[in-house]
Amino acid sequence: MSELFITRLHELTIVIYAASVFLYFIDFLNRNRKANQIAFWLLAFVWLLQTLFLIGYMYETGRFPVLSLFEGLYFYTWVLISLSLIINRLMKVDFIVFFTNMLGFIIMAIHTFAPPHNESNVISDQLVSELLLIHIVMAILSYGAFSISFVFSLLYILQYELLKRKKWGKLLWRITDLTRLEKMSYVLNVIGVPLLLLSLILGLQWAWIKIHDFVWFDSKVIGSFIVLAGFSTYLYMRVGLGKQGKALALWNIGSFLIVLINFFLFGQLSSFHFWYE
Amino acid sequence: MHIMVVGLNYRTAPVEIRERLTFDENNLKDAMQTLQNKKSILENIIISTCNRTEIYAVVDQLHTGRYYIKEFLAEWFGIEQAEFSPYLFAYEQDGAVEHLFKVACGLDSMVLGETQILGQVRSSFFIGQEEKTTGTVFNHLFKQAITIAKRGHSETDIGANAVSISYAAVELAKKIFGSLDNKHVLILGAGKMGELAIQNLHANGAEKVTVINRTYQKAEDLANRFAGEAKTLKELQCALVEADILISSTGAKDFVVTKDMMSTVNSLRKGKPLFMVDIAVPRDLDPAIADLENTFLYDIDDLEGIVEANLQERKKAAEKIMLDIEEEIVLFKQWLNTLGVVPVISALRDKALVIQKETMSSIERKLPHLSERDIKVLNKHTKSIINQFLKDPILLAKEIPSMKDSEEALDLFVKIFNIENQVAEQKGLKTVDEKQTVVQKVPRASFQS
Fold this sequence. Notes:
By secondary structure, chain A is mostly helical. Chain A has nine helices and no strands.
């Protein structure tokens, strides 16, 4: 795949993605079924372009594209779009796709300005193993689950406030019920936590084998364990203590903020994590 | 041919009149069939609900159509015309079409945007089709009305959200719990309001009921009617910990549930949401409870506010649908006008073919030596001349219905080709005796706005 073709493909994807998010925004402001439908098909097209890009990229590099910031962010966006399309197909929950893709678009934009995928930023070939790829893919998948769980909690808080403040408008009737929103964020965390746990175990195993001067007190390692602890606490409060309601949703939102910090900040401070050798 | 609707509804007639002129669902077929046999009626459909009795008809003359419809109503219900005539309304042509579209969309309903009427319109239309009281015009018009209504309901929020207080309370509860199945309802006060509240919630799936009343016996009586449980006022705090929904309607002068009491209860509920509706005056539930987390407290004014807000939304949606209806009326008129073109085109072809036939006879007489093959060739070529010559005028004629002054244009077309007699012959197929056949075959278009 030529460099020019990849650039053009990426630009096209960004433009269509922006159009899709914009149409979802129109639907959000003032219910518009046509805008929603067009936005969905544009999003499906973005997913197709991204999938083609990923396949082409894999064909070119001969490996799974998650070994640099550039690649990781792209894969993360792909996971978010895939999940939002699946959720859109499986259940009709208004605004989930819009909010998820707002997040997806922001990440896509960050990806656009991320350091390009030159060799110095990619983990050297000697260090790459299946263990590492599985570790990264699982981590990104868990982040995808946490992201959508976050969106559900965000909608929970929005709906909670609308109900509390007695704002009887379209928004209140379009956003689904609190019970469903809470259940969906719980289910996604139930998926995300084991994925992250397995990812961390595999990551540690990989680091133990491949990195001779492995540091336990690395910011990314600590950050990942804080994320795991945050979401595990959420599950404990929900299942063990039987807690529900606003506090739980706020906890979930807080935990996701740690995910973002861990992904963007701790990754940069890390002494050995991908895209910074 | 004219379209009209004659009827009465909740706007024009009081219930005492409406109930006397309501068609029994089982007799609707006979009624349509009987009306169809009346003079002047070419097609008819009767829509009869508790709020309206409306007769839609395609008639050959408006005044005779109206006369025979009234006669039919008087005969069918055995009531003097003078008794119901003042309550009747009648719309003709565009007005009748617009009225049908509005009725199907629920824009003419007592509860704006309700969907039940669409089912009733559809059901009457199907009966009309079965009984063959509909023809080309109503088959098209009613299908169009049903399509517009379906589109209106799917593309706008016209039928969405509650417009009654009890339904608003249920809808609001569903925004918290999703479904009311297996939800625990606590009723505070065993009066009439409490009973109505249980009935409403029970019907929506909330099966577990606890009733608390100052007089325990009353609470027990009410609870027993819904296989529920009665508790004393002392047990209120414990009951609040377990409940999902609280409906309060006591006659107490002070707050029955205070903020302090709810704070204690809340600490034991582990964040489980509590939906509280205070329908008592003076209020039973301290408004400050609303400040507590995961408690959703509403009073009767709040529910009225929801109904009002939803009604406003429905009105906005109705305005959108009205714009759609206006466009659809134009489309219907265009379609109807195309029906008028058919006999004109047939007449033009007939006239041309007669000329061709006469020409061929003349040739055969004047040139008797021509072989059979020669005649065949000549016949073919003269027909070809006609076809080629008529091609453009026929294409133009087909475009006439979409023109601004389509009727004048069609008249001019008929005059230019001097085919008035042939058109009259085409249309003359229609007699009162043969009206059924004509409606199916060549409906005349004279739909004037």
